[in-house]
Amino acid sequence: MVLFCLVASHRSVDLNTVARLSTGALGVAEEAVSQGALSGAITLSTCNRLELYGELLEDGTRDVALAQQQLAERVAERAGLDERFVLETMDTYHGTEVPQHLFTVVSGLESAVVGEREITGQVRRALNQARQSGTASGHLVQLFEAAARTAREVGARTGLGERGRSIVSVALDLADDITRGSWPDRHALIFGTGAYAGATMAALRDRGCADIEVYSGSGRAQQFTDQRGGSPVTEVELPAALRRADVVIGCSGGSAPMPASAFPSGPRTVIDLALARDFDPAVADLPDVELITLESVRVAAPEETRESVSAAREIVDEAAQGFAAAQNARTMDQAIVALRKHTMAVLDAELEKVRAHHGCTGAEEQIEMAMRRMVRSLLHIPTVRARQLAAEGRADEYISGLEALFGLEVAPPQTLPADQDPLAERSPSDTPRPRAAG
């Protein structure tokens, strides 16, 4: 078993490219698992990043490199991008690099707004979506469970993100500086009804904005406002809602951006936070209109304190090392079980031969006890050595030796049942969306 991931993020490419890659990645993980190319896969797609996590049963760098290349080529094909460009654009991780990377991401250390909290929920929703589609393998579930625990520990032990900074909050801070009036007097119009739109609704209410309308091209605005408040807007009512709005916020990532010509005249602030743009960039050229984009948010995002970031990175490092050690220990436990079963099976077969040949005698019980003590003694050193190699991260060497010497097949470690899984809890807001923001 080996884990790997492919990553395209705001740190290496522009957000338009991230959006195109995310569109191209839709269904790729499920396809790879169904065709047997991967034993498991999870896709994490946000407004700032696309991450494809995969599991291969066969170890070896060549196998991993080939799987990564095939996934990247498939994404490139569906996104209509040059394959070489995508291969050069996406960062690759495998083995122990994978938990280190995911734990860093889920803690908010890789976000455009360092320490933002939205990414934790997005990672949880990515796992939930993979479970629903049947692509979440046991080891990937364990990886994402450990990521959730790491994020909680970072939140509990450091000041990272304690001010509740997020892409939404930074965007609204920018809007506050350039929009007339105060939030209680402003009229807001939200495009979208997903989890990100819900976060926007909550942030607006926290600032005192009560006049909020919601539009959705999918027709789910009524359901959304029934649950979260605000007023639904239909297609027919949209032009009038745009005229009323002081602040227009895009969170949907619709199939085609709204053209600048659809906006009525008058001063307003337009915030486009969708993975795929909700509004044509030409909106910025309209008189008295200010456009705030994800790029604007990234530039304006305040830096967290050096102490908080340093403490968070130490927690991430410890968690990644602990995850690797735990995986080695679980794998080694299975190897020890396999060795003991094999040895005891040989012993039982030989004892059965003795019984068949000599029958039941007074000495037979003593012979059996002596042979079992001898086998336990023989297994002591291999068991101790197994623990030592697991602690050193060399479990694969031990397992390869068992396979070579005895022809044993070591079963993969078992995962937690769903009712003990901290990430298995679901709520309506956790419904996976192909293009979550964050």
From TrEMBL:
EC number(s) on file: 1.2.1.70
Every Tetrapyrrole biosynthesis glutamyl-tRNA reductase dimerisation domain range: 311-408
Gene3D superfamilies, per the entry: Glutamyl-tRNA reductase, N-terminal domain, NAD(P)-binding Rossmann-like Domain
InterPro entries (alphabetical): 4pyrrol_synth_GluRdtase, 4pyrrol_synth_GluRdtase_dimer, 4pyrrol_synth_GluRdtase_N, GluRdtase_CS, GluRdtase_dimer_dom_sf, GluRdtase_N_sf, NAD(P)-bd_dom_sf, Shikm_DH/Glu-tRNA_Rdtase
Residues the entry annotates as binding NADP(+): 192-197
Domain of life of the source: Bacteria
Region span, Disordered: 413-438
Domain Quinate/shikimate 5-dehydrogenase/glutamyl-tRNA reductase: 174-297
Glutamyl-tRNA reductase N-terminal domain sequence ranges: 8-158
Entry function: Catalyzes the NADPH-dependent reduction of glutamyl-tRNA(Glu) to glutamate 1-semialdehyde (GSA).
Protein name: Glutamyl-tRNA reductase
Annotated source species: Kocuria marina subsp. indica
